[in-house]
Write a structure and sequence with these properties.
single chain; mainly alpha; two-stranded antiparallel ribbon; 4 helices; extended
């Protein structure tokens, strides 16, 4: 749990309120039953690809997402996937340096006006990504 105070909240008042309302919450689950079952089963999730198309000709742009199964953080290719993500990177036409970035992909997209922006990201978990 994270408790955040924003604005003109005095620190000590926030600490006192947190102590009053949250100090009795358990710090550990009452049972470890779910974790024990997960350890026993060692279930590996299946990646199921799908496609959703919603066409709206009133919009002047299209939003496209391409997703593939990633790697877990314990996979040998984890750091390779992070490097690949960094190589693809992010790009936005609205940035002042958009035509001058070193990426061949961003230069190609800018030159032929193929997109307004793109972004790559990866989220890895213990069993998949």
């Amino acid at each position: 749990m994270v408790l955040v105070g924003a604005g003109g909240v005095p620190h000590q008042e926030l600490v006192d309120l947190a102590s009053k309302y949250f100090s009795k919450l358990p710090t550990k689950p009452h049972t470890d039953y779910a974790a024990a079952i997960a350890r026993e089963q060692k279930v590996t999730p299946d990646f199921v690809g799908s496609e959703v198309r919603i066409r709206d000709d009133t919009m002047s742009t299209a939003n496209i997402a391409i997703a593939v199964e990633g790697v877990s953080w314990s996979d040998d290719d984890y750091f390779t996937a992070l490097v690949t993500q960094a190589i693809v990177g992010n790009w936005d036409r609205a940035m002042g340096n958009a035509p001058y970035l070193g990426s061949k992909l961003s230069a190609f997209i800018h030159e032929y006006q193929l997109a307004n922006s793109y972004m790559s990201f990866s989220t890895s978990y213990s069993d998949t990504g």
